[in-house]
Design brief:
The chain is built from 7 helices and 9 strands. It is of the alpha+beta class. Among the domains are: 57 residues; 108 residues, Band 7 domain (Tetrahydropterin Synthase, Chain A, 2-Layer Sandwich). The strands form 3 sheets. Strands 6, 7, 8 and 9 form a 4-stranded antiparallel beta sheet that branches. A 3-stranded antiparallel beta sheet has the order 3-2-5, covered by helices on one side.
Length: 330
């Protein structure tokens, strides 16, 4: 659009100078003045639009700029500014949260209070607050570099490593492992003030990986590694002794349990045998009683039969005697 304003303005200004030859007496001084004034106005408007379109810079919501050079230092935030080549320098400042990863392992691993090395991978979440002072401090810290995750990492990497080392040196390996959040909080508190001097705000610190450094990577010529190896040997040997004690104790408990179980089984079998013997004795007793009762009943029956037979025989004899007596009387 600015091109049209400029072209029309130039055309009107040319018309002011050569309109008389084109329109004759109809083109008088008044028309020349109006044509010249309108042409100049359109030309100025066109140049203004041209400057705005070419040199006006407006940051996005997640970005800010620091303009330096002619007119002094100025923070461009939520608005815009004219930036002219050779007169100004523009430093972009990202307002997004930046994730900076710091990993220390092997020979570079952290040294704990008990002289053990620990491999650590930490993530630092950092951002520049959308405030004028914070943006200026961030831009000053990085000079003319853009404020992004890569440049910020180069600036504060050693600070972050130093904070990790300082906090690790105050805690034992087991303590760091058991209290990761406390370790991360200690690092965050230690490094926060240093980052604020660079216009950076530390949002959080997370420990994504934490493990003892492999013993093969430790050097016998390093006093910390030598002490660490001795500590590892002491701990592992103590653990082996304790494990052996636990295993032997477990075997003893298993044997005792087996013996106790066998005793209980034998006692149950004895009780079962006694119960079976008592049951057999009771059955034999009942059978003998039933047999005795049956024999008594049989004897009684035979006695009664014999007595009946005797009575019958007596009756027969009495009847015979009585018959003989009657015969004699006749």
């Amino acid at each position: 659009m600015h091109s049209w304003f400029i072209l029309i303005g130039l055309a009107l200004m040319l018309l002011a100078g050569f309109g008389g030859s084109l329109f004759g007496n109809a083109w008088g001084p008044l028309q020349q003045v109006i044509s010249l004034a309108v042409g100049a106005l359109l030309l100025v408007i066109g140049f203004i639009f041209l400057m705005i379109s070419k040199f006006y810079v407006r940051p996005s919501a997640n970005m800010a700029y620091v303009r330096t050079g002619f007119g002094g230092r100025r923070v461009v935030l939520d608005s815009g500014a004219l930036v002219f080549p050779y007169l100004h320098t523009l430093v972009p400042v990202s307002l997004e949260t930046m994730k900076l990863e710091v990993e220390r392992k092997g020979p570079d691993a952290l040294i704990t209070r008990d002289n053990l090395r620990v491999d650590v991978k930490a993530e630092f979440y950092i951002k520049v607050q959308p405030e004028v002072d914070a943006i200026l401090n961030a831009a000053r810290s990085l000079g003319d570099k853009s404020v992004n995750a890569q440049s910020v990492s180069q600036l504060v990497f050693e600070k972050l490593v130093s904070a990790l080392r300082s906090v690790a040196a105050t805690k034992d390996l087991v303590e760091i492992h058991a209290q990761r959040d406390a370790f991360a909080s200690g690092v965050q508190q230690l490094v926060r003030s240093d980052l604020e001097q660079n216009g950076l705000t530390l949002e959080s610190v997370t420990i994504s990986r934490l493990d003892q450094t492999s013993q093969e990577l430790l050097s016998d010529n390093n006093i910390f590694d030598a002490q660490g190896k001795r500590k590892i040997t002491e701990i592992t040997q103590a653990a082996l002794v304790e494990r052996n004690r636990i295993e032997q104790e477990a075997r003893r408990e298993i044997t005792l349990k087996n013996v106790q179980t066998q005793k209980e089984i034998l006692e149950l079998e004895r009780q079962r045998a006694e119960a079976e013997a008592a049951q057999q004795a009771e059955i034999a007793k009942i059978q003998a009683e039933r047999k005795r009762e049956a024999e008594t009943y049989r004897i009684e029956q035979e006695r009664q039969i014999q007595e009946a037979q005797i009575q019958q025989d007596q009756a027969v004899r009495v009847a015979a005697v009585e018959r003989d007596r009657l015969l004699l009387l006749k």
